[in-house]
Design a protein that fits this description.
This protein is mainly beta. The protein has a single domain (22-119), classed as Jelly Rolls (Sandwich). It has strands spanning 5-8, 21-32, 36-41, 46-57, 63-69, 72-80, 85-88, 92-94, 99-104, 109-119. The strands form 2 sheets. Strands 1, 2, 4, 7, 8 and 10 form a 6-stranded antiparallel sheet that branches. A 4-stranded antiparallel sheet has the order 3-9-5-6, with no helix packed on it. The radius of gyration is 15 Å and the shape is elongated.
């Protein structure tokens, strides 16, 4: 996988978990270097509603980005200018067997995803 660092949040002990709970969460990758990386992976008994995905090109040179849900391209070869930010605000749902992967062609890109995690375990 990529040289980026993946960080997830929303796992605080004071937040509700278990059947019927709903939490607003985020995950982010810093410094993704011209590669694919999984940013969100489904878990049994969970439904995820993705609210937004934000990418920032911190390299200082234009590049492209892509989003892949399992084997389906949600976004293919979207141009992003030097030090620009791209916001994906179309909502979609992921289930337990789904994986969301991100890709950027620049050598230093930052990603953040916000989503609702509905826990039915």
């Amino acid at each position: 996988m990529a040289a980026g660092t993946l960080v997830s949040s929303g796992s605080s002990g004071s937040m509700p978990t278990g059947s019927g709970s709903e939490r607003l969460c985020r995950a982010y990758i810093t410094g993704l270097n011209n590669d694919w990386q999984e940013i969100l992976s489904g878990t049994a008994g969970h439904i995820y509603t993705v609210i937004s995905i934000i990418f920032t090109d911190t390299q200082g040179a234009a590049g492209t980005i892509q989003l892949l849900l399992n084997d389906l391209y949600l976004l293919s070869t979207q141009s992003v200018g030097s030090t620009e930010t791209f916001v994906w605000s179309d909502k979609f749902v992921m289930e337990e067997d789904d994986d969301l992967d991100v890709y950027n062609t620049c050598t230093n890109g930052d990603w953040i995803i916000t989503y609702i995690d509905q826990d039915w375990t």
